[in-house]
């Protein structure tokens, strides 16, 4: 009975060692090295994409904070509500002023 146990144990350990060595040898072939590099580049691309998404999300949050803090999120005034100092809007004259002095 003892010999049968040790025989089974030896066969199991031998099979595991052969499988490990086969995997290691496969990784050392050009195709295995290429696949390993491809997996590494894929992981790097995923990490860069996640980083970019985090940066965009943080930028959007910060932009919202800045807009609410400065009042830039308020609606824009209508065109006829705006009075620029020292300028006339097309088609309108400022009150109390006539045409240009050269036109008189």
Would you mind describing this structure in some detail?
It is a single chain. With 104 residues, the protein is mainly alpha-helical. The chain has 2 helices and no strands. The protein has helices spanning 2-27, 30-70. The protein is rod-shaped.
The succession of helices and strands, N to C, reads HH
Strand content: under 5%
Structure classification:
mainly alpha
What is the straight-line distance between the termini? 126 Å
Structural Rg:
38 Å
- DSSP helix fraction: 55-70%
Question: Helix count, per DSSP?
Answer: 2
Poorly predicted regions: none
Number of strands: 0
Query: What does the oligomeric state look like here?
Result: single chain
Q: What's the mean pLDDT score?
A: 83
- Silhouette: rod-shaped
Q: Major β-sheet, in short?
A: none
Please supply descriptive tags for the structure shown above.
104 residues, mainly alpha, 0% strand, rod-shaped
Concise overview:
This protein has about 100 residues and is mainly alpha-helical. The chain has helices at about 1-25, 30-70.
Set out the fold topology:
Elements: H1 2-27, H2 30-70
